[in-house]
Specification:
By secondary structure, the protein is mainly beta. Helices cover 11% and strands 48% of the residues. The protein is built from 2 helices and 18 strands. It has helices spanning 87-98, 124-135, and strands at 2-4, 7-17, 23-29, 37-42, 47-58, 61-68, 76-77, 80-83, 116-119, 122-123, 139-141, 147-149, 155-156, 162-168, 173-178, 187-191, 198-210, 213-222. The strands form 4 sheets. It has a 6-stranded antiparallel β-barrel with strand order 1-2-3-6-5-4. The chain has a two-stranded antiparallel sheet with strand order 7-10. Helix 1 packs antiparallel against helix 2 (124-135). It is flat, with a radius of gyration of 19 Å.
């Protein structure tokens, strides 16, 4: 079962990309519209910290969307010129102005020095993308709402028992059931199906919950 700030969730669709911001589209059993920072929790253990960006209550049901983190990556930042900054300086400034937090698990950018850097006016997410591109690393918002950037390690996912319901090897897409709450991008999972076991490096996860049943679609690369 999923809850949003302790209110029961009727249905949920949580999209977790390997690069970018996770989003959650929800239907919540409540007469009071949630606002600001909220926590999406599951009985299975994982929880997500995000921010409400839209939604409304109709007949006792709130329907709306969350984005991972504080929602500040959508904030427009002004242009800024740097001389001899590190990429870490550029990233830290953007996240601070956006009200976002850098994950302690991120890779170090302290040695990545640029002669000049011009921050283009626009959403904070654009600066994060520019820094990630310059360093050659992916970035994403984690469950706890912090922004992570670093080299992929493809560690084994916490998901233990996953059954493939509908594999699409051409599109590298797998509909799965089982311990889907442990699925995360940037990890490696073993999917069990009638055609045999498949090791997949997870690129994107779409988690769906409806009528207390949870399934997921995984996009990834076979190992």
């Amino acid at each position: 079962m999923l809850t949003l700030n302790d209110s029961p969730i009727l249905s949920a669709s949580v999209l977790m990309p390997r690069v970018g911001v996770w989003t959650a589209d929800l239907e919540v059993d409540t007469d009071t519209a949630p606002t600001g920072t909220v926590v999406l929790s599951s009985d299975a253990g994982p929880s997500w910290r995000g921010t409400v960006i839209s939604g409304a209550v109709t007949l006792g049901t709130w329907r709306g969307r969350l984005v991972g983190g504080a929602g500040g990556l959508r904030k427009n930042l002004g242009p800024l010129a740097y001389q001899s900054p590190t990429l870490g300086d550029v990233l830290a400034d953007a996240l601070r102005e956006a009200g976002e937090t850098l994950s302690a698990a991120s890779g170090s950018l302290a040695q990545s020095t640029m002669a000049l850097w011009h921050r283009i006016a626009g959403p904070a997410a654009q600066t994060v993308r520019d820094v990630a591109r310059a360093q050659g690393w992916p970035w994403r918002v984690l469950d706890d709402g912090s922004v992570w950037m670093g080299p992929e390690t493809w560690d084994a996912a916490e998901a233990a028992e996953l059954e493939v319901l509908a594999p699409d090897h051409i599109e590298e897409r797998y509909a799965v059931s089982g311990d889907v709450f442990g699925l995360r991008p940037g990890t490696t999972v073993l999917l069990r199906g009638p055609e045999g076991d498949v090791g997949v490096q997870v690129d994107t996860v779409l988690l769906r919950v409806a009528l207390a049943q949870a399934t997921a679609t995984v996009w990834g690369f076979r190992g």
